[in-house]
Amino acid sequence: MPVSGLVVSLSDEPQPLAAALAAIGREKRITMGVFEANRLAIVLDTASSDEDRQLWEWLGSLPGVSFIEVAFVGFERPDESPPVRTRNAHNNFVDINIDSATENDTM
Known about the structure:
Helices cover 24% and strands 45% of the residues. The protein has 2 helices and 7 strands; from the N terminus they run E-H-E-E-H-E-E-E-E. The strands form 2 sheets. A 4-stranded antiparallel β-sheet has the order 2-3-1-4.
């Protein structure tokens, strides 16, 4: 089940901006976050990577959407617990897999 955290850059023009916000707001697989300076933080929660890709393509095709930035993409397998993200003593992010109790340092 892919989860994508994105930042959508929107038009400065009122009509396309309003249309894009309305269309995004109607999409049940999207959770809208902070909107500031014509940039909207969103989360996509889809059932498959194909559905995720189609939703990205739909977003990019909306009038009023000028750019999409990726903040995070995660793929959770239903048979596993998702990793827990924390920081280690060096202030680096660490993913801890609860099922196998291993750590994977990431920068």
